[in-house]
Design brief:
The chain is 28% helix and 21% strand. The chain has 269 residues and is of the alpha+beta class.
Length: 269
């Protein structure tokens, strides 16, 4: 009888461990679901446009204002010569929910379709959703040192690499040339204008790299910085940058080694 006691204790111990991890997985699932649902709700403020939406396109074409010079609080829909059609983002409503909103990012053919915010530092939105609720998914957020109008030479957007596939998870897929070939551009809408991101480089790096550099002494220094990014890129881009360009850098975690990051650089057009 005495020999059975250790076996009983082991069974109870393993059962306790199983319950502990089971509850942890359940909590994580609920939190992931809450994050997904919170961003799904925000999709009501983005109206996807199609080439058939001729009324808006004709209105944009007849207006003296180009899409990139639209009125604050709106984003004009217009079909470009290459077939790009801009979604309409209701920034007025989004700003009522959260005045920290600076834009909306989407990459067609992926699940990257989120509002962009900017906090007082780079920690505030790390684990806060757009509505301010605590959640491990966090938000897509602009570096607090950047200008909201994207006037910096390098504007940095951060997002988590969530295991359930949301946020900036798919950014790391640019390690594959075929993925870049299918998704060479992204769209960045702001209250003051629309921008296309033409991706030119993406690479794995560590926190000591200058990928997050914002200020450059000259056009030449900036162009050398771009060329260094090209030399490390996991894909070959089609766009041809110039020393006068501005770029956006999308940054997320990757897991080749501790504190590894994948950064995706796009020229703003």
């Amino acid at each position: 009888m005495k020999r059975k006691i250790p076996l009983v204790i082991l069974c109870v111990l393993f059962a306790g461990i199983a319950v502990y991890f089971g509850l942890g997985l359940c909590r994580q699932w609920r939190e992931n679901k809450a994050g997904e649902d919170a961003y799904e709700v925000l999709m009501q403020y983005v109206a996807p446009q199609t080439p058939s939406a001729s009324a808006e396109s004709e209105k944009a074409e007849s207006s003296p204002l180009r899409p990139e010079a639209s009125q604050p609080g709106t984003a004009v829909s217009a079909e470009e010569a290459d077939g790009t059609v801009w979604p309409l983002v209701d920034f007025d409503s989004l700003q009522e929910i959260n005045p920290d909103v600076t834009g909306w990012i989407c990459i067609e053919g992926t699940n990257i379709n989120y509002p962009v915010v900017q906090g007082p530092d780079n920690s505030y939105y790390l684990y806060r959703l757009f509505d301010g609720n605590s959640n491990s998914a966090g938000s897509i957020f602009m570096d607090y040192r950047n200008e909201r109008d994207l006037s910096d030479r390098n504007t940095i957007l951060y997002g988590h690499h969530m295991q359930n596939g949301i946020m900036f998870n798919q950014i790391t897929k640019y390690k594959d040339q075929a993925f870049y070939d299918q998704h060479p551009t992204g769209l960045l809408m702001t209250p003051d204008g629309n921008y296309k991101m033409e991706f030119v480089a993406g690479y794995v790096t560590d926190m000591n790299d200058d990928a997050w550099k914002m200020e450059f002494a000259s056009d030449e220094e900036f162009f050398l910085w771009l060329q260094d990014a090209f030399s490390k890129s996991t894909f070959t881009g089609a766009a041809e940058p110039t020393p006068q360009d501005r770029v956006v850098t999308l940054s997320t975690c990757t897991y080749e080694y501790n504190d590894a990051r994948y950064v995706l650089v796009g020229i703003l057009k």
